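Cont'd.
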Amino acid sequence: MSRGIAVVSGGLDSVTMLYSLLAQDDIEVVSFNYGQRHAKELDQARLITSHLGIPHRIIGIRSFGEAIAHGSSSLVNTDTEVPEGSYDDENMKATVVPNRNMVMLSMAAGVAIASKAQFVATAVHAGDHAIYPDCRPDFMRKLSQAIKSGNEGFIDPGFFIRTPFIYQTKTDIASLAGRLSVPIELTWSCYKGGEKHCGRCGTCVERLEAIHNAGVTDRTPYADTEFWKTAVNK
Amino acid sequence: MSRGIAVVSGGLDSVTMLYSLLAQDDIEVVSFNYGQRHAKELDQARLITSHLGIPHRIIGIRSFGEAIAHGSSSLVNTDTEVPEGSYDDENMKATVVPNRNMVMLSMAAGVAIASKAQFVATAVHAGDHAIYPDCRPDFMRKLSQAIKSGNEGFIDPGFFIRTPFIYQTKTDIASLAGRLSVPIELTWSCYKGGEKHCGRCGTCVERLEAIHNAGVTDRTPYADTEFWKTAVNK
């Protein structure tokens, strides 16, 4: 059994990763509040880790979001609309917060070093689209190398960024969630902060499609259960 | 003229770097509040950028410091004494915040991408001791590679982490500060948050020695002006 830090947003992917890691490793969870428009996913992450009885830290990096808010991201800039529909490049570029993944993984690595953990795990997957270079194997490899170099003597020599889903699709993850009995309805994917998942934003569409294709049961309530069928593969 | 983000703590090194960069580049300044025991250096950084009339963002990452406070660092854990005397390994290991440099440079890179800047500059120098692996050329090279990989398509293809002092000593920097007429007395180096620089902590000792060796004028008041002479090279 090794010790690791799991970066968990509260979404389907990271929660499924958490369940799969817990089967064999000693896990602490780190989540980030980077100035999302809503904290719903963090609430859900807290609920899930509390249910599982595992340590959970939420690190606030809202100030980073604010510093870059004059950029183009709709996730930190409330003046920009969240795009609806599929994950096509044009739409989703507006949701990229510059270097966000690296900031979060660098902090998770700091926690890992303090906790004498051997890895940081992130739920990036093959379906993360071409517009997210910080979800690619090349980045994860270079990031691991930088972390090990910058913390030589303080970090476990075998430390690495663990990416169990990097060659899997979102449908693969949904299938795994079914096999592991992950409480899918407790996870939160929607970019909007409503009472229910909207069913129309990019992540809702992606989630609904993956769950459908995997054929798993989903008790999540959605405001719109039909939109995704017309939005995918646009 | 290129555009860059300078990481400035308010200390002698980073302020001297700022003055040297301003001679040829378009510079914005980023500072970090990571839960230092005192914010004196940030106040001084603010004073200096205000005097120079250049943009300055202070990004709060206190929450990161708190998340790792159960680790071993005296900079974020107020239960641990700040060591006095020279920068020998035993003393200074207590001041290492895991992966702090990487967290700050990753955030500065995010700001650089949002600002369409070509570089992030950091004032690490050859005298940063062997216990700080995140001040070494190998780390800076790997970090630049990770940042470029993780932001491909969004970042200037020529982006790099600029480290103008990485092969210079602190005495070289103090000499440059003299030539550039840097207001040394406005910079803040002391690890303690007193009215004056204590003159006894590791950074005070290092600062006093460098300024002495460079033979430059220093109007900074110190609580103890003699201690450094016996503390160095212990």
